[in-house]
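Journal club prep — side note

Before the paper discussion, L.F. wants everyone to see what a predicted structure for a comparable chain looks like in token form. Sequence:
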Amino acid sequence: MSRASRPAARLERRAAWYRAVRDAQGEPRNAMRWLPEVRRWQAQRLRRSLAPLLERPDRAAAADFFLGEVYGGRDDDRRDADMLRVVPTMARLLPAPLAGTLAHAIELGVLSHALDLRMAEALHGLAPRRRRLDEALYAEAYREVGRPRLRGHQIDLIGAVGDGLADAVALPGAGRLLRMSRPAARLAGVGRLQDFLERGYAAFEGLDDPQGFVEAIQHGERALSRRLFANAPRPFG
């Protein structure tokens, strides 16, 4: 396989995984009533975790991007449909760091959703009559699902998305290329995907220490995961 074709192949594999895990008929856990509650609770938990970054003017835009677009539980069918529809074209046209960012973002979405499905299934067994999560029940379900290696890889992918955006910002002409692609993206009906890339680029362009920003998120998430698996008292602080 040629070096130029590798980003396209990676994106296409991740797109296939995405379709499989989101398929309502092939994956019946998508209809479980616990699934939206898991996503809602996790989004609120992440907002609390990112509060110190959201309150800093120099990091607020990047933290908001991660909260809404990358790891915060937004279930954006329009953006994801855009990603799947234009995977081969985007891989050929985008600078390598941005193509890699898309591949990692899709993989992160797939893995996060797959783990959420397992959480919903675990909660169905642990608390079939309950409707709302709290910290204790979430922690119990988290340990029931297990998969520490996959949880670690999920956090690795957060860093990969951030690193890709940081590399794109450092690449001469990447911002101009993104702006030039805007009319074509609108015409092709993939404006939501264009917005995702532009917002990420702009958020990281404003960071004076993108690596430190990403490492701060990863450090907090890894520490929380260790506390949850260790059944530590008050793991959420």
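L.F.'s comment for the group: The longest helix spans residues 96-126. Keep this in mind when we get to the figures.
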